[in-house]
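Notebook entry, structure prediction.
Reason for the run: the old model in the group folder had no record of what sequence produced it. Starting over properly, with the input documented here first.
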Amino acid sequence: MTVGRVLGTRDATPLEFWVGVAEGEYLQLDDVVALERVLPTGELVRMYGTVGQIVARHEGARFDSDVFLIEDGILPAEVTEAAQVTATRFEPEVFVPPRPGQEVRVAEGEERDRALFFDRMERKVPVGLARNGEPLWVNFEFINGDRGAHVNISGISGVATKTSYATFLLHSLFTSGVLGKAATNTKALIFNVKGEDLLHLDRVNARLDDEQRSKYSDMRLPSTPFESVGLFAPPRLDDPKGTADVASRSDVTSFFWSLHEFCVDDLLPFLFADAEDDRAQYTTVVYNVMAQLRHATGSDTGAAVVDGVKVRTFRELADLITERVQSDDHRHTWAGPAIGTGTINAFVRRLQASVRHLGRLIRADVADPQRHRISLEDQVTVVDIHNLNDRAKRFVVGVTLKRAFEDKERAGQSEELLMVVLDELNKYAPREGSSPIKEILLDIAERGRSLGVVLVGAQQTASEVERRIIANSSIRVVGRLDSAEAAREEYGFLPGPHRQRATIVKPGTMILSQPELPVPIVLEFPFPAWATRASEAVVPVDYDGPADPFEEL
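New structure, fully documented this time:
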């Protein structure tokens, strides 16, 4: 369908040109258009592009006040509309400008797929719907590590729906068939950092209506919750049974680490996982103490014998370490030679400050501690850390990622992916400083693609996240942005109009950039088919757990 012609009053280049919209027709932002040009050699060049900006004006008006005279019929003038088109593809790749006057049409069906390179994607993943209801795709090769990996999502908290979109991407990967045989052993590890929202992924969303279900059908996806979900949460404070600290359901497994594991698995540095470690001298003490703890022996309950002393609680272990690094008899071995008193005291202060927050996560008072290890047996594993102190959150994230990455290294299989979803990425991999967690995340970003470890990171401000993590993300997604944040260089992949739109987009609308497409695409994704909070969950009939005490608030 012809909607206009290439303008001759504005410069047309191979990369950008303007289209005059015909009377009775219209173009809107993100529309895909197509046209052809015949070269003097007789060769036909097909050109495709997307609408990035549209202007309407009065032709014949000279002053602002002329609009009133024109509307009263006193001055002659015509209303014209012109659309700015950014070229996306040439077939063949002969980069010549379109000629003024050439007909321009809206690309549909196969033409639209060619314009957006969807026809070249052998394995494609649905990522949302265009404004006209057509599905939009990304090339799976830029997710699974074949040609790139990792997804980064930015946006204002509570408005940009970052977590909702991250879970939608997982649902699309698991149910679209793109994983093939690898679907059986492809896993997702999600850290839940806000409320108990992600503890109901396996339950139907009661708010899902027929209109939203049809959107899933348009993308050839089922409108169903996640089938295989493992839920883990920290134990309650001062609970000798180690019951999971969750209010909205009772079938959640509590997690913690035994004292023996803490000693022999070199977990001590994650107590000091803040962004100041690279400038702090006490890190020398940390690694000297870690070397001594590595020789500990254990028992069935997870207790540890350290330097001949049996410790049963994290408090006892912290006190033992404090005594060893401060005593004259052991200081040289435990703290290290030529370590000053001030440096040792700095280490001790931080160690003792962690006891109150980590005591319920490092313990030896619960039988069969192996039952309380975070496992990745289910397709999706949710680790709830929302009610932990920031120090404890960093410890859980760091230790869990360390183990998962090491297990993937030992397996050495890249086709069976491990998708890691981590919100508040700026807390764990800030731009400045270094820490054990940041080093693990950098390792995942730079080396994870070869092992099949894919990071789906989210944050409010990409400008505060380590540059190398952002740079290694092949797929970048933006929701609603603060206007000051949108002006940062980290969003240079967004053209000017897209940056402006990012400050006003509504929840459920995202702007996605992928390497194969030269311009970002604006998409909408459907309402989650899985419950995003306890009040939305359709609870199974045989559920006998406690009701959510906050449901009516």
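Summary: The chain is about 25% helix and 20% strand.
The old model has been moved to the deprecated folder.
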